[in-house]
Amino acid sequence: MEKLPGAKFLIFDIGESQFQPICGEREFGKYSIVELGNYKNTIVLEKNAVIKRNNYILKVGQCVDLDSNVIGSWKNMVMYQKNDSDLLDMLLFIKRMEKQVSCVPYLFESGANSFDIEKEVVYRNLLAFSILDGIDKSALEKKEFITDSLAYGLADDRWNELIKLEEEIKAEPIDRYEFIYCLLLKAFYIKHSSKKSMDHKILQLLNSIN
Hints:
Layout: E1 9-13, E2 26-28, E3 31-33, E4 42-46, H1 47-52, E5 63-65, H2 68-80, H3 85-96, E6 100-102, H4 104-112, H5 119-134, H6 137-141, H7 149-171, H8 176-193, H9 198-207
Parallel strand pairs: 5-6
Antiparallel strand pairs: 1-4, 2-3
Helix pairs in contact: 2-5, 4-7, 5-7, 8-9
């Protein structure tokens, strides 16, 4: 979503909304694109949207998260010239759809595992992803994988993010389910704590998120 000063977002699964599927579930041989949820049943709660209602528009961006298996296979294509037509078909589809790609799941996996695999392998994966992130559909079709200073710069930035993430996980190892549990408890408390309007309760819940 577009960055807005002081904005906080919550996404809930409800009845049918105006959101459309990103691209639907797709199969590409041994690879597949799976949506995290039914976006037609998604609503976004945001403080200004609650207050201004129909006079407020949210700009929504979409991306495709690549896991470690996909990133590793892509690295083999880029750096070791291994053929993988299924992977190439999937990546070309993503580029044609003009969707942003993300390596966040790989960063979390590597950070949470404290670099149990060789650091050189991790960096090569990040470099390969940075090459993918920077090329267009035409270059991908021609397999023109250019490792330039821009790709190295992006890989270095992601490497630094990974180091920071690993340090944060070690310093404060709080499981995600604990955050979800606390959020649900807070929502339950707000729902039953007063007879105020639903809009007021939504704002109260949004304001409680740090």
